[in-house]
Design goal:
Chain A has 179 residues and is an alpha/beta fold. Helix content of chain A is 35%, strand content 17%. Chain B is α/β, with parallel strands linked by helices and 434 residues long. Chain B folds into 3 domains: 40-165, Aconitase, domain 3; 168-280, 3-Layer(aba) Sandwich (Aconitase, Domain 2); 284-433, 2-Layer Sandwich (Aconitase, domain 3). The chains are: A alpha/beta (179), B alpha/beta (434).
């Protein structure tokens, strides 16, 4: 794919150790994801949820998503239309939740060199994602295994399971037809 | 989490507890660190927040059924007792779904999931388990591989009985020597989290070992495993032993079930990172706002005057924690200007504490007793007021978790919470016990 054809993504910056209570505040956990998303990250930057646009990316410091298992932490970012999160490291539990919801996480050691409002593109060298800055700098990211990339492309685990259940039931009905 | 190639395993090399547990669940004779494998789940636990209200619509959407309802445990602990209409609705949906699915194992308003799960004999050494809650590593205290997952991943487990896992490296925390009176598992964990950081576990396995750990009772061991979540580990394992067996027998696990269990241990020549700690040198530890890794010895906090002393949560309000608090509070009164709140982690623990006179000591000292639920720790309701300074036996002190952003939460052991409650400032409990 030529670089010109790649989408560009506006960068929103947050710091290190962003926790799940900041992403999905407990007080709103009894509500649906639309409500939780409206309060996403408000403890760090009140301007975020109201102004972020679909296709933007969130760039954070290390240990993004520490804390709770509540997947609404990833779901809120997905709901706001984030194209990806780019950070040097993640909580393992958050990492699984994000991919299960179809939210792409890029593990990028140099993430913190990206600036607020800068525009980046995401490109792939095989299974290895790269972040391309407007000035032409390429930031390497850790490879994403194909089963997790498939999950992102399918829009999350629910869709993967649907495909699997459908394949199973069509195999079962084939078997009953041939019986 | 990185997905580099799996390391090679020299033949004849020792295996870690984590490797043995995963190998069993994956049906392999051996597994290498870094391997990504599909494991069969022995038990799945979820609660009123992560469970039915999220799972039911998704299960219908994908057209699947629960793979094995006998292997599912549902606990109502996050939204009970209901504080408002929304919470009431969530509880009702949870109870309705439990009936509709005919779940045989439902524990409703009788305590916090991580405490009631072993209390009802559901965890057995050798099991591979998942929980819909981040403190699910608590189960590792029973020699089970147990970790937390989100609701969508739980859907996958509930529909298929399977989950993927990457075989972790093991960080082996070897503790030797005797803890001083008034110093406990919570202090050990706060110390380790301070040393390694909130994500220092890097989603690998932490294993707690050494004579100090073997000398701890099951509930203290659970505190270690519980807070491996705050180290960012996937699991916090402790090899099952005679102490485990004795506990399991006391909660009704049969000899036949114990025979069928797997008491795995890390081989001495297994490849792991080893860290050594001297228990006798450990002083009470406090984690300052707003992170469990902001840990220092108690002496650094003597000018802090809490307005609330909170003994609660799966981390810090089990029977062992209530007994510790009572030992400090016996014959003493809560200081003026401070409110002592106690939310026993389970109804059974509270009943036993009542039989022992522990509850009486707590209330005589001026404690208010709250329901057996997650309470203020989850932050879903009943949190602290604007401007409160809290010393808490819970696991997390993130800004805004337990109330408005202005609330300052200091994490401590139940010993230290009780000491602050009677002295009015954060103080060294050892001075009250001598």
């Amino acid at each position: 794919m030529s670089r010109a054809a790649l989408k560009t993504h506006k960068v929103w910056r947050v710091g290190a150790n962003v926790d799940t209570d900041a992403l999905a505040p407990g007080a709103y956990m009894k509500h649906g994801i639309e409500v939780i998303a409206a309060h996403c990250l408000e403890v760090h930057r009140a301007d975020f949820a109201g102004a972020v646009k679909p296709g933007d990316v969130l760039v954070a410091g290390p240990n993004f998503g520490i804390g709770s298992s509540r997947e609404q932490a990833a779901g809120a970012l997905k709901q706001l239309g984030m194209a990806a999160v780019i950070a040097p490291s993640y909580s393992g539990l958050f990492f699984r939740n994000a991919f299960n919801l179809g939210l792409l996480l890029l593990t990028c050691p140099e993430a913190e060199s990206l600036q607020e409002n800068e525009h980046v593109q995401l490109t792939y060298e095989g299974t290895t994602p790269q972040v391309l800055t407007a000035s032409g700098r390429l930031l390497a990211c850790a490879p994403v295994p194909s089963f997790l990339m498939d999950m992102v492309n399918a829009g999350g685990l629910v869709n993967v399971l649907k495909q699997r259940m459908a394949a199973k039931s069509s195999a079962a009905s084939d078997a009953s037809l041939s019986a | 989490m990185t997905f580099d190639k799996a390391s090679s395993l020299p033949s004849g090399a020792g295996r870690t507890l984590a490797q043995k547990l995963i190998a069993r669940a994956a049906g392999r004779s051996q597994v290498r660190v870094g391997d990504v494998l599909t494991c069969q789940v022995d038990l799945a636990m979820f609660h009123d927040s992560s469970g039915p209200r999220r799972l039911k619509p998704m299960l219908a959407d994908i057209g699947a059924q629960i793979w094995d309802r006998n292997k599912v445990v549902l606990v109502l602990d996050h939204y009970v007792p209901a504080q408002d209409e929304d919470a009431q609705k969530i509880i009702q949906v949870t109870r309705d779904v439990a009936k509709e699915w005919q779940l045989p194992h439902v524990i409703d308003s009788e305590g916090i999931c991580h405490v009631v799960l072993p209390e009802r004999g559901h965890l057995k050494p050798g099991y591979f388990c998942v929980g819909g809650d981040s403190h699910s590593p608590t189960g590792g205290a029973f020699g089970t591989y147990m970790f937390g997952i989100g609701a969508t991943e739980m859907l996958g487990v509930v529909a298929t009985g399977e989950i993927w896992v990457q075989v972790p490296q093991t960080m082996r925390m070897v503790w030797s020597g005797a803890l001083q009176k008034g110093v406990c598992a919570k202090d050990m964990m706060l110390h380790m989290i301070g040393k390694f950081g909130m994500n220092g576990g890097n989603y690998q396995a932490v294993e707690f070992a050494g004579d100090t750990v073997r000398g701890l009772g099951m509930q203290e061991r659970m505190t270690l495993s519980n807070m491996s979540a705050e180290m960012g580990a996937q699991v916090g394992l402790i090899a099952a032993d005679a102490v485990t067996t004795q506990y399991l027998k006391s909660v009704g696990v049969t000899d036949a079930q114990l025979e069928a269990s797997h008491f795995f241990q890390t081989d001495e020549d297994a490849d792991c990172q080893r860290f050594e700690f001297d228990a006798a040198q450990l002083s009470p530890q406090i984690a300052a706002p707003h992170s469990p890794e902001n840990t220092k010895p108690v002496a650094a906090f003597s000018d802090i005057k809490p307005t609330v002393a909170y003994i609660g949560a799966c981390t810090g309000a089990k029977l062992a924690d209530l007994r510790a608090a009572a030992e400090v509070l016996k014959g003493r009164q809560v200081a003026p200007g401070i409110q002592l709140l106690v939310a026993p982690a389970s109804a059974r623990d509270q009943a036993q504490a009542a039989r022992e006179g522990v509850m009486q000591i707590l209330t005589d000292a001026g404690a208010s007793v709250l329901p057996n639920a997650c309470g203020a720790c989850a932050g879903y309701g009943g949190t602290f007021q604007e401007g409160a300074t809290v010393i808490s036996s819970t696991a997390r002190n993130f800004q805004g978790r337990m109330g408005p952003a202005s609330v300052q939460v200091y994490l401590a052991s139940p010993w230290s919470v009780a000491a602050a409650a009677v002295t009015g400032n954060i103080s060294d409990v050892r001075e009250l016990l001598s």
